[in-house]
UniProtKB/TrEMBL annotation:
<keyword id="KW-0479">Metal-binding</keyword>
<dbReference type="InterPro" id="IPR050582">
    <property type="entry name" value="HAD-like_SerB"/>
</dbReference>
<comment type="similarity">
    <text>Belongs to the HAD-like hydrolase superfamily. SerB family.</text>
</comment>
<comment type="pathway">
    <text>Amino-acid biosynthesis; L-serine biosynthesis; L-serine from 3-phospho-D-glycerate: step 3/3.</text>
</comment>
<keyword id="KW-0028">Amino-acid biosynthesis</keyword>
<dbReference type="Pfam" id="PF00702">
    <property type="entry name" value="Hydrolase"/>
</dbReference>
<dbReference type="InterPro" id="IPR004469">
    <property type="entry name" value="PSP"/>
</dbReference>
<keyword id="KW-0378">Hydrolase</keyword>
<dbReference type="InterPro" id="IPR036412">
    <property type="entry name" value="HAD-like_sf"/>
</dbReference>
<protein>
    <recommendedName>
        <fullName>Phosphoserine phosphatase</fullName>
        <ecNumber>3.1.3.3</ecNumber>
    </recommendedName>
</protein>
<dbReference type="GO" id="GO:0016787">
    <property type="term" value="F:hydrolase activity"/>
</dbReference>
<keyword id="KW-0460">Magnesium</keyword>
<dbReference type="InterPro" id="IPR023214">
    <property type="entry name" value="HAD_sf"/>
</dbReference>
<keyword id="KW-0718">Serine biosynthesis</keyword>
Amino acid sequence: MHLTIQGLNNTLSSNTALIQDIASQTKAKLVQLNAKAVRLDNAECDEQALSGIRERCFAAQLDVTALDKQLAMTDFKLVAMDMDSTLITIECIDEIADMQGLKPQVAEITEAAMRGELEFQESLIRRVALLKGLDASALQRVYDERLQLSLGADQMLKTIQQAGVKTLLVSGGFTFFTDRMKSRLNLDYTHSNVLEIENGKLTGKVIGTIVDADEKQRTVERVCAEMGIPTSQAIVMGDGANDLKMMKISGLSVAFRAKPVVRAQADVALNFVGLDGVLNLL
C-alpha cells in the first residue's frame, strides 16, 4: 500500500518519531512530499495493522490515507463537491434559521440527517417549513456575514482547475448560495434546491425535485455522461450521509470533517488538514 500521512502546521514535524516507527513497522520507503505531508511507499500492512496506524495517527491529529496504487491528477477529469460543511464551513439552512431565532431546532434536524438517522427529503421539508414568512433578504445576510470557504478550498480549486479538471457543486442546500459560489469560484456545474419566494418572503416550500442522496448520485452520473467520462474518473467530496451514494460511484471518495458513518466508508478521510490535503494524494 501507499500510506500518505499529513497534518496541519507543525503537527507532522512534531510527530517524526511516530512516522518513523510506522515506516519501520510497515517496511515502507519514506518519501517527504512537503512540510506537511509524507508518503510511505510499498507499506506492508493488513487491515488490523492499518486500523492501529489510523488510531495512532488520529490521536496525534494526523490524517492517514491508504491507497493500493499511486494516483495522479491525470487519472481524474471531475471533482464533485457537497457545499455545506464541505466546500464552505457553515450549514446555510441553520444560519438562515438563526435569522428566525430557530437555529437550535433546525440544526438538530440537520445533524440527525447528516448522521443518517433521518431521511434527507423529510428533514429538508421539515426544516424549510420552519422558515415560512422569513424575509428573503436574510439569504443575502447569511452569504455576506457568515459564509466562508473551508480551509484549503481555494488552493485545491486553483490547482485542479489549472490541471483542466472540471468542477461540480451538488448540494442539498439552495441555489441562492450555489449560484453565487459558481460565479465566485469559476465552477463548471452546480445543482441544488430552489427555495420558493413570494412577495419577498420565504413560503416554507422547495420548488421541484429535492436534491437528496439519489439526486446527488444522478447528478454526478449525468455530468460524467455529458463529459463523456466514466464515474471512476470523478473525485467526490462530502461530509454527510446524503453524500454516500455519489461517493460510492466515484473513483476516489473524500470525507471532509465528516460524520463517522461517512468516514468509515470513504477512501480518504480528511479530519484535520484542509481540502487541499487531497492534492498530496495525487
